[in-house]
Amino acid sequence: MTSARSTVFRELFLDGQVCDSVIRAGDVEFKIHRIILCNCSAYFRDLFSYKPLPSNKVYNFPTVSPKAMSLILEYAYTQSVVVTEDNVLELLAEADHFIVTGIIQACCDFLERKLCVNNCVSIYNLAHLHNCPDLRGKAFLYILHHFEEVGALSLEFLQLSVQQLSDLIENDELNVKQESTVFEAILRWINYSPVERGCDMPALLKQVRLLLIPTEYLVGTVSRNDVVSSSPACMDMVTTAMKMLNESIVERPIPQTRLPSEVLLAVGGWVSHLPSDKIEMYNVRADYWVPLSLTPYASLGFYGYAYLNGCVYCIGGFDFTSFSSHVRRFSLTSQTWTEVGPMHEERGFLSVATLNGCIYAMGGCQYQKTLKNAERYEPDTNQWTMIASMHKPRAEAGAATLHGKVYIFGGVTEDEPLSCAESYNPDTNQWTLITPMETGRTGGAVVAYNNEIFVVGGFNGITQLRSVIAYDPRTRRWRNVAPMLHPRESFGIAVLEDQLYVVGGFHNGGLFCNLECYDEKTNRWYIVSDKGMTQGAVSCCVLKRHPDLTAYLP
């Protein structure tokens, strides 16, 4: 509807001019034009077409509130409606009753934006009640992807039917780090009404992937639970699972793991003293690496790396002969490489970060020169723009973004590891020196983690490091964090499921193949897998799993 027509119709509605009928909601009457209402609602179209016009020209809707009817009529005349927390439930119910699809969609959009742990179950049920399949699907996925919080904290979770709970816990999309979480959520649901729900345990336990639960937990917790131990069917399932877990790995059936909501992407690096184009994806649920890109492409090493809007960017680089300003982009959707706008400067050993939809390339080397200038790439224009230069020239520095600023730490200039650090404010186009590190380091990995910036490992000019320090921009102070299990430099780092992962890297001239993981809750590092990428100078990021990646998951 054009703005001019909308204005005319609104004036007709407000002035009550040329009206041909009246709608009464409660004790309030509204003068209306039937043809206008027919345009927005199949209900009114059928009503006015097939039901004779009352002699008094009044259509009565005694159960509809005047407030809701006023909003529906305003939408009919203006094609717009204001949805709020106060009116959304009533408005959706009445829009469903009167088949006003525009208002239904507006209410669904509003509720989707409001999805949270405390209301996702009620929104799921509401969408089912009013036949809103898109909202219902999104609410269902929200519950699946936030199941740990919903199952442990939500009061609405306790109101699920046994069939609804079964549908959730049998789904591969259920996002749980440990399968024992599923069992504990079932117990919480049953204990809410143990007399009525105790008999549902066999059907629910059948959906728990018992082979993913450690034997100690099965023996010490599951089998000793009163509801489980009192059910022969449940005990048969637990006993069978324990027997299978005691078999050799070769004879043991392979359990079906849950699909992760996030995956770790590891890109490029060096293998056998040669640069690599490999892109691999790590499934934390199955502890499994999957190759994504096998397309040959002329490789460079020591390039910058960024992930932005579903694409991997490899920026600049060095092949032991020349430095590059070229930028190539790998699309996860099409699985293809393309060249995009080149940088102004040739750079190797550069630092890269993303902020507000842009990519920042900073410092690096150019033959015998260490750079301090920086530039920014905007994908919409496919162009790089020079920004203010840093205070210090630096190569092999670590960079990350936090709270709307770009941070860069350490690096090397003239073979001397740097301890200084600085931040860039894009609003003022200025770099500011910040509190330096206690010792210089180059080739360390840097990442934003829980409102701090972690600087991990690297090389101090004498030896490779396993030390970890964290910088808090709010206090401008550094603190020591538990060190890694192994010293390493030039490795990948990413935050996956609230934990810090490091991948590959160099140590004493060799390459690492393991993954280490840091849990801030315990301030401890542990080995996740010894089956990781055997690569140095690898780059990492974490991305939400989407349909283009699902086919690659085992």
From TrEMBL:
Pfam annotation, one family: BTB
InterPro entries to which the protein is assigned, alphabetical: BACK, BTB-kelch_protein, BTB/POZ_dom, Kelch-typ_b-propeller, Kelch_1, SKP1/BTB/POZ_sf
SMART domains the UniProt entry points to: BACK, BTB, Kelch
Domain of life assignment: Eukaryota
UniProt-listed Gene3D superfamilies: 1.25.40.420, Kelch-type beta propeller (2.120.10.80), Potassium Channel Kv1.1, Chain A (3.30.710.10)
Record domain BTB: where: 19-85
Keywords: Kelch repeat, Repeat
Name this protein carries in UniProt: BTB domain-containing protein
